[in-house]
Amino acid sequence: MKVLGVVCSPRKGGNTEIMMSEAMAGARSYGAETELWTTAGKELKPCDGCDTCRQKGGKCHIEDDMQELFPMVLAADGLIFGSPSYFGSVTAQAKMVIDRLYSLYNMYVLPNKVAGVISVGSSIGHEGIWTQFSTFINYCHMLPADYASGFARNKGEVRKDRFAMKSSEELGKQVVSLIKQQFHCPEEYRRPLYRVCAEEYGIDSYPQNRF
Ligand SMILES: Cc1cc2nc3c(=O)[nH]c(=O)nc-3n(C[C@H](O)[C@H](O)[C@H](O)COP(=O)(O)O)c2cc1C
């Protein structure tokens, strides 16, 4: 059983990474193998909207460090996404990771993976992070785990936030417990509903073709 932590802070060894490490330790204490991947120091490009992955399926054509993340996500039974609050939402790096995972979304390979969220901010913006990741988790038919939140500004400060540290550890354990439940989405609902309606009934989701 594998749990992957995806840290979407540009700051190596920052507060998000510290909380994620705690979550990974929690997951290991419940028997999982863990891997932590961070956007820090990586070359990442945004999705260019070529739409090939949606129309033809398969691999994202952009050759950058996302290519090392795709197989890690595929191999994971559980994922934890973490981001600091940047102007009340996720970092640009987090949004790039989400958008580039469109290729895996279009392959219907994300359902049944458990996914939790870690947020860090000096004061506000946690809900923006939770909403962004939750929407993604929901779209992909992953099974949602909880949120862990931390309050910190300077690097390392989150270690003083007792709730952040403990809730991160518990989140890691929770993800493993949920994986052990072996939830399975019905095969036909691996696909998003817009695909089901188009492919099974010929009913399009485009507003001009609905009525
Ligand atoms: C560009 C930028 C925008 C930020 N916006 C917010 C914000 O809206 N709310 C907040 O509470 N903290 C904000 N912060 C502070 C970070 O969320 C905080 O320093 C966090 O601990 C960084 O996590 P990291 O160490 O994992 O990078 C911002 C920091 C930066 C660099």
Could you provide a short overview of the structure?
The protein has 211 residues and is an alpha/beta fold. It is 41% helix and 17% strand. The protein contains eight helices and five strands, in the order E-H-E-H-H-E-H-H-E-H-E-H-H.
Description:
The chain has two domains: 2-180, Flavodoxin domain (Rossmann fold, 3-Layer(aba) Sandwich), CATH 3.40.50; 187-211, no CATH class. It is 41% helix and 17% strand. It has helices at residues 15-29, 52-56, 66-75, 92-100, 102-106, 126-139, 162-180, 193-201; strands at residues 2-7, 33-38, 78-84, 114-121, 143-151. It has a five-stranded parallel β-sheet with strand order 2-1-3-4-5, with helices on both faces. Strand 1, helix 1 and strand 2 form a beta-alpha-beta unit. The longest helix has 19 residues, at 162-180.
Total number of distinct structural domains? 2
Distance between the termini: 46 Å
Numbering strands along the chain, what is their spatial order in the largest sheet? 2-1-3-4-5
Strand content: 15-25%
**Secondary-structure element order, as H and E?**
EHEHHEHHEHEHH
Task: List the uncertain runs.
Answer: none
In which range does the helix fraction lie?
40-55%
Indicate the CATH architecture of the largest domain: 3-Layer(aba) Sandwich
- Which ions and ligands are bound to the chains? flavin mononucleotide
